[in-house]
Amino acid sequence: MSTRSAGRQVAIVGYAHSRIERRSDRPLGAITVDTARDAITDAGLTVADIDGFVSDPRLPSVGGHEVVDGVSVVTSPWLAQTLGADARLAAGHVGYSPITSSVIVAANALASGACDYVLLHRSLHNPAGRYHAATSPDVGGEAQWTVPHGMVGPPVGIALPYNEYILRYGATREALAEVVVEGRRNGARLPWSYWHGKPLTVEHYLSARMISDPISLYDCDIPVDGVAAFVLTTTDRAADLPHRPVVVDGYAKGMPVAHRPQGLLVLDDMMEAGFTLVNRLWEQSQTGITRDDIDVPQLYDGFAPLIYVWLEALGYCGVGEAHEFVRDGRISAETGLPILSGGGAIGNGRMHGVPQMLECYLQLSGRAGERQLDRAEVGLACHGLPLYGGAVLYRAG
Amino acid sequence: MSSAPIRLSPDTGSSGYWDAARRNELALPVCDECGNLTLPPAPVCPNCGTTAPRWRFTPVSGRGTVRSWTLVRNSFHPAFDHLVPYLVADVELDAQPGLRVVGRLLDEGAEPPRLGDRVQTSFQELADGLTVPGFVREHT
After folding, report:
1. What are the structural domains of chain B?
2. ipTM above threshold 0.90
3. A164, CA 20 to 30 Å: which among A110, A112, A255, B103?
4. Closest-CA residue of chain A to B117
């Protein structure tokens, strides 16, 4: 162990995942309470044991949807109170950082002894109406630097750096088709996934409507209602629990590198942030894990082109080469580098980093069933884009 | 149109930009301390760190280089419902290396640009009293 492992070791010891639906007829809070109770039971614990609650409750839509705790978002304080838990900690990072910040807060709270058992959850809601669309003609604040110029919402935002990639490196839609088809193929095998039983063909991908060229419909994860919950504790306590623990081995948070108009993503910014994040990740591994040790690399694909950014930042291929790397079965879950074995966001629905964390947990705990990979001792979950997101290393306990 | 499809609320940090646009000028905020351009203006200068940047909107060259573009086919704001599909370019301005802005390509029937195409600022009235800087291709 290096000096990075201050305090006690922390592990995931149980989980639950709701069914992912386009729009549920139940309030998000009700689904969250069911899922939280299931996760606690799965870990061999009761609500009375859980004294820490951590989440990122953000509703990641652009469109002025009303935010109501327990209905459109679920915060940790709401969940702790509703479950009737005797919580010592209810914390949450609100920002554009799917999952990573929650894991960092939970791991450090446990390592320091601020609490003994943490429930980490993520509840995602698909509000009525359009997910990303202005509902009022009013434009002020940060939005005045982009919206009057016709740049509104994340799909337009991601189209610019993706097209910059295409223009520089000659990437084709056929290449990204292989990414999306692999995500959907794996998602189709997951009983909880919105896309369960619904793989996508290359032809169907290529015929989908364009949203903001070169971003097409299936390059975007689909907004859904869904909840995932994980239970974390220290490894000494984990030894008494029913499932093989999955240890949090290290993490790194991405940071912005340049001051830009809100939502203007620049390819070089993303790569610079990505290289910094990845170097920091290896430095912060408790056991000296680096890329070649990773059996289960789960890359973030909330917009499919982000797969290229992560592949290149991690050094699986050179800059500008990811669009060739992903072809010809090289990212197949069975015979290639299994970067989307858990289906990713494209194969599950907009669960904001949950699929990557869950696949690491399922594979490393030996609970992936018929999808179990032959070797699954070390996992990597990448979340979001490197400018705001982060990455977490896991190892089998 | 009975109601304005877009209603801008300029503030002290942006009115210099929008006032200049109405005069068909591109003006960007300059830090009083270090002289660097920054968009958007911020409470602390991202270049020199001064907490008193006293941003001054200064006319700058509207010429630049296309770094990327997208063809927007879905309108996500009512002001653009009648304009889709339209091209938005990501432009690095000559005024300062690394300074990136977005703007619509206003050339009639514009073909998608190529990487490195040269553009210059042009202006379009998007709504009553709201003139927005965009770009047109430079003819060489």
Report:
1. 11-60 (no CATH), 61-140 (2.40.50)
2. yes
3. A255
4. A167
